[in-house]
Amino acid sequence: MPRLLSRPTDVMPDADDPDTVSRTDLHPWAWWSWALACAVLANLVGNLLLLSLLAAAILVVVLANRGPQAWRRGLGFYLALAGVIIAMRLVFRIVLGGTGSGPVLLDLPELELPEWAAGISIGGPLTLGELQFTLTDAARLAVLVLALGAANCLADPRTALRSVPAALHDVSVAIVITLTVLPQLIASTFRINRGRRLRGRNSRGLRAVAATLVPVLEDAVEGAMALATSMEARGFGRTREQRSVGRGTGLALVGAALAMVIGVFWLLGVAPTSGRVLGVGIEQWIGLALLGTGTAVGVVSLLRSGRRLAVTRYRPQPWARAEWALLALAVSLVVLTCWWGSAWGAPTDLRPSGWPTLTAPAVILPLVAVLPAAAALPVPNGGAHHG
């Protein structure tokens, strides 16, 4: 059975004005660098107001840069998912209760539990401090979901697959397929619902879900078969050369990955002791050393193991000045956040002990995060000539 509607092709940029070109379609890994920087910022911030500004900045960037492609229309789903996360955390906190401080906002009847369930309470008083902590923790996870969803809405997954190193080619196939399952299902749902509306079928609720489920699954199977046929016809995954890489390269790559994981754990999960060097705890220096060493060894190992695969790329996505600028902005955002949360900065601005407040310097972080919205503005095309 053929699809209800054919898969839409990517819409080409408007060429009415030859003096300007759009910078909306930046390199996908540039967008991912910005999204990961926003995720790091959300993870390190415990200020509810600052998290709200960061979420607003992410939404502004996505709305300013998303195009007409089907995979760029899943923002509503990620917004709904973020809202569900916040609502579920609030419900669980209200039902299960806690030991927060502050004035009591709601006093629910408490269910008596047996002795073996000591430490667990169902119901009881809901305090202001408990509600603030729950909202902040849920908002942090919700902003993290929005950041990763923004990357899915802005970065073309097919272009991202073509731009990975040769050594990670097989792994990147699995990762990209995993990350694009949800956007593809969203695109299929949009397309099938549009076809049903054109046929005058505007049913809603469970009946609409049942009528849409089978066409969505059929569309997914047909798309997978078409992709597999296309990849097979182009010799995808085959190697043209068999070069000896060395037995120690794989072990070095695994060791580098372990060193990076342990370094991140020491950097973020181990509390600093009294001993400090240049204002930073010794544990953090150990984490930085492990992270840097693992990154360096990992890059060298990837370059060596990539010699086995002779991967060709058709029309590779260029990495121009705009991509370098976006990468520099992402790195600056991470460095600025880490510095602000250290002893040199003002950690209480990021993680206040009481009711959250906004200081003028802390507002710089969401302002830096919203700067990629300017990528949607047309820039002069130096190569344009008038006849």
Automatic annotation (TrEMBL):
The keyword Transmembrane applies. The chain crosses the membrane at residues 31-63, 75-96, 171-192, 250-272, 284-303, 324-346, 358-379. This is Energy-coupling factor transport system permease protein. One of its GO terms (cellular component) is plasma membrane. The lineage of its organism: Bacteria, Bacillati, Actinomycetota, Actinomycetes, Propionibacteriales. PANTHER family: COBALT TRANSPORT PROTEIN, PROTEIN ABCI12, CHLOROPLASTIC. Keywords: Membrane, Transmembrane, Transmembrane helix.
